[in-house]
Amino acid sequence: MMPVFIAVCGSDAEDASVSAETLLTAEHIGALIAQRGGVVVCGGRGGIMEAACKGASQAGGLTIGLLPNNKDEANAFVTVPLATGLGMQRNVLVVSTADAVIALAGRWGTLNEISYAMIQHKPVVLMAGTGGCVDELVTGHLMKPAAAQVAVATSAADAVEKAFALCQKQ
Amino acid sequence: MMPVFIAVCGSDAEDASVSAETLLTAEHIGALIAQRGGVVVCGGRGGIMEAACKGASQAGGLTIGLLPNNKDEANAFVTVPLATGLGMQRNVLVVSTADAVIALAGRWGTLNEISYAMIQHKPVVLMAGTGGCVDELVTGHLMKPAAAQVAVATSAADAVEKAFALCQKQ
Amino acid sequence: MMPVFIAVCGSDAEDASVSAETLLTAEHIGALIAQRGGVVVCGGRGGIMEAACKGASQAGGLTIGLLPNNKDEANAFVTVPLATGLGMQRNVLVVSTADAVIALAGRWGTLNEISYAMIQHKPVVLMAGTGGCVDELVTGHLMKPAAAQVAVATSAADAVEKAFALCQKQ
Amino acid sequence: MMPVFIAVCGSDAEDASVSAETLLTAEHIGALIAQRGGVVVCGGRGGIMEAACKGASQAGGLTIGLLPNNKDEANAFVTVPLATGLGMQRNVLVVSTADAVIALAGRWGTLNEISYAMIQHKPVVLMAGTGGCVDELVTGHLMKPAAAQVAVATSAADAVEKAFALCQKQ
After folding, report:
1. What pLDDT, in 10s, does the model give residues C39-63?
2. Interface partners of B (3+ CB pairs, < 8 Å)?
3. Chain D residues with at least one Cβ partner in A under 8 Å
4. Cα-Cα-Cα-Cα dihedral sign, residues A55, A60, A65, A70
5. Measuring CA to CA, which residue among D17, D10, D14 is closest to residue D43?
């Protein structure tokens, strides 16, 4: 049976506003996805992406990194590094190849991925309390009209549970 | 001298929440861009895009439509219809080919284009009072950290003035 | 009525094997396309592309340059410079936006565009005697199975005549 | 250590000219890539792609399918199905994500992938005697100027040996 592919989206390592706690949450999310037999898909770089890959790979899971340009951009926990050559336009592939998106913290690239998920009618789980654009979306009105496609999670376990549940509803 | 390319982004004709007044504002924006020698770039379809193209072409300006798939998707006021074959992924080209973005109303595709503009460090002018994701961005906190790159406009003339001014600052 | 868009594909200015005569042929082709009311589409850079744009723009025609990255890559005769941000992957857009392709000389990028034209079932006119990959295709067997979609031309006038004729057949 | 990614390119199942022997060669190539610890990258569909994935997955290797649109387009032997949403424009990703390309038989899509490999300076191994565009390239002059980047193979073992050797030279 085909495994479920969950995109984990969020800030790269250059975003100094991401807390150590948020990185641990991302790592926990990666581990839980792998424990349920899911595959972690991400942009393959540092920060949230690296944390999710670390958690998943240490739990024995597969991690796919859709890299902007070259394979050497991949973090150490990407098991399948894909050098797209598309620069930031590789974002759309993170979403296209996933069955659902879990987002933490994040800046414009994360907002870009969330908007692609909405366009493609993919479920989006917003991790509350992680700051960045994700918390703005949790507290603001922008996502309200799409309540059926969007969930807010309050823990790593809650996020993974909701992502898998929303995949099954589709 | 190279003309300024202004992207006009917003809902297509399927978004019933767009008011007649907002469409008139988009048409006025198109006309003002053309009168200043600018080129209107857009996704080439109906709604806000068609209104902006109508205003620009009736003022003698050039309008470029970056279409999802085929040339026959173009509205009647596109002078240069470009069939990208990229589907909704053509959004990034609307932004890449523009010097600044003016956004009205809009749903996920418009949010997607605004996020690309932020990633590419292109100026964004949000037209207040037009509803949709644009008004959520005007009233919410999401764009606040990028105040230097983003302006809020209260009339068509204000929007075009701010878009050209922000282009020159770059 | 919608104008016909003809892509003119071939070597950029870095290909030292392109003869002055071939550049003149490309310029003549551009002029003839414009005189028939057609639009020249190309990659927007030097060499064959610049020659075709020069001919077309001097004949009062519109020339569209689909540039790899930035507008300042455009040759001086591009009237609509489109900065795609796609690098060499913008090749596909040259083909997608055209109704037919005329190819002269050329290296791997030109072969790439010709292969896209074949995939998209767009007519291809190969300009004989211009060297490069185009002459290899004229004299070799690779294009033989697609005779209905491909024509060989022996002069600029012949190339433009055949490109317009093949567009109408579609 | 990062595994070597080898793209196997060639006709899909709709190309009736592909012989059973050529399919067996593709399967053998897939198996040999996997036995050397390499990853098979391909377009994920039938024909040559399926044969290569079959060989690799039965030898315990990883196979990545970069699919035009949806995951259900994948052949049964793709272990990592990636739904790109790019249609035929996903070809470039097959090449971008690979360290070298082995091509068998093939039509315009295969020629497209080979031209991308040449543009990206990736090694190309042409499998002689498999028909299609690959044999035209083996017997014609088109690839001659790029002799250092291109090899002709006469057996599956020869192809895989040359692909790995050319990767190491880079």
Report:
1. 999 999 999 999 999 999 999 999 9
2. A, C, D
3. 2, 39, 62, 64, 71, 80-86, 92-93, 96-97, 120
4. positive
5. D10
**B143 token code pair:** 């764009």
Query: How big is the CA angle at D32 (ends D169 and D99), to the nearest 5 degrees?
Result: 35
From C48, C168, C47, select the one nearest C102 (Cα to Cα): C48
Among A113, A119, A134, A150, most B C-beta atoms within 10 A, so best to mutate, is A119
Is C136 in contact with D141 (CB distance < 8 Å)? yes
Contact A141 B140 (CB under 8 A): yes
Are the CB atoms for D127 and D25 separated by under 8 Å?
yes
- Give per-residue pLDDT as tens, A57-79: 999 999 999 999 999 999 999 99
DSSP string, C60-89: T--EEEEESS-GGGS-TT-SEEEE-S-GGG
Check CB contact under 8 Å for C89 and A87: no
Report pTM: 0.94
Mean pLDDT of D128-148: 92
Question: Least CB-CB distance to D93: which of A80, A81, A84?
Answer: A84
| DSSP conformation letters of C33-61 | HHHTT-EEEE--SSTHHHHHHHHHHHTT-
For A89, the closest of B92, B109, B118 (CB atoms) is B92
Among candidates D80, D93, D120 on the partner chain, residue whose Cβ is nearest the Cβ of A64: D80
ipTM: 0.94
Taking each helix axis from N to C terminus, what angle separates B108-119 and A108-119, rounded to the nearest 10 degrees? 150
